Amino acid sequence: MRDHRVSGVRFSSLSDFLIRTAGEDHEFLPEEDLGRFPVVCCGMANGAGGWILLGAAWGEDEPEVLGLDDPVGMERRLRALLAGERRISADTVGAFSIVGEAGTTLMAVRVEPAEWHRRPVCVGGDYTRGVYRRIEGVDVASGLRARFRLALDALERLRSDGVVPGLAASDLHEESSASFREAVVARRPEWGALSEEAFLSRTLVLSDGGITRAGHLLLGKKSTRVRALFRDASGNEDIFEVRNLWRAYADLLPRFCEGLSAACAAAFRECFVNALVHAEHDEGAVRLTGCGDRVRIENPGLSRAFSQGESLCRNVRLMRMFRLAGAAAGEGKGLAAVRAYQPGFELHQDPLELATAAELRLERLPVPDPARTPLPVVSLVSCGAPSVEEAVARESAAVPPVASASDFLVVSAAPAEEAPDGDGNPGGTTPDAPPPEDGLPPNLEPSAGRAFVFGSAAQELELAVAEIRRQWMEAFSSGSAEPGTEGGGAP
Hints:
Layout lengths: L13 H7 L5 E4 L7 H9 L4 E5 L1 E2 L6 E2 L5 H13 L9 E9 L2 E8 L20 E4 L2 E4 L2 H18 L12 H14 L8 H7 L3 E2 L2 E2 L1 H7 L6 E6 L5 E6 L2 H13 L4 H17 L7 E6 L2 E7 L5 E2 L2 E2 L4 H9 L9 H8 L6 E3 L4 E7 L26 H11 L9 E5 L37 E5 L2 H21 L14
Parallel strand pairs: 1-2, 11-13, 12-20
Antiparallel strand pairs: 2-6, 3-4, 5-6, 7-8, 9-10, 11-12, 13-14, 14-18, 15-16, 17-18, 19-20
Helix pairs in contact: 8-9, 9-11
């Protein structure tokens, strides 16, 4: 039978239709069940879309072909149905195509997924009882919880494109903006000549001169919180916190990828960026917890929509920003990269805590044998009090490397033990540590249990020097010299 076409794509037969639409949602409706057509369209529009085949019914092994008497008139009836009392709130019905099969005529109707700002889609304007979803090929009327999740998903996407009232480019974190620009220009050199405002507009941070919500989350001074806690074998905890998403990616993430295998670091990065992009940042902080050879990355919010097993991105603008900087591979590719490293990996959703978590095992690079590691030159024994140059060198070695002009501030999580009284100090006095920073308890100094927050490099250096002085104080109080030297002398 020669093909006829009302609109849309062509299908030469029922087999051709099933092959070319394999993996998509299907519904078979005989002519007497046309009343279900709006409900099926609504369910598909709230999901990933699908195909409706009119003139056929579900069979045990394959569709049962019934046929249509007037396919052209059927299209007019369906469009009239959708424009009447049974109309759906979003126009997602696309192609109408005639399919010839064994002397009969069928009609294939394509239903597109609704745009996020149009969800939830309902039938007849009734958002209380007319919101349907497709669950394993069955149309289910959504309850309050499901409607709430659909609406939140749409709201989150709309807000990511909106402008935060009262904020301008001057409210962005300068170092984060400079680091972000450097990463983008490395991939797009032609953008290096743009002015700062033009660059921020091109990268979606600004819109009509105002900061978008996604841009504020990425580069704001105090837009959100990302916290990380790592516990070593002895039980000591290192706690880190940053206040925007770019600092989390550019400064926090590299600290934890150090020493991991290439495949593990890539999977770690994908899980981390996925949590940053999918989180409901108004509901809490993204949390990263590591212990031994495992890490757990948790973000507030549930993955509300899926397409072929992939959670759809809630904040598209934020994802595009990360992609511009080369920090994300694109929607749908991250999970495949993680599973290549850890087969069977799945995201875990907690409906009680309204949170999504990813758990990853860590594969570390082999550590060189200490016995074969050559000793550094600075370990040579020196006599007498250290010179000024030697003291400065020791202080510099004790300071952690600074990733940027403003890095992590080291603060103790527990009071340090006071050194016992004694006269081991040749000068008879104890070197004074610098006064405590504002907002810190007066008895806190760096120790084994540390909490990290962002501060200036000068503050970190000052605290590192205070730590060295405390060690000298303990050494002199006990009457012994600093390990690795003979003689003494406070720095």
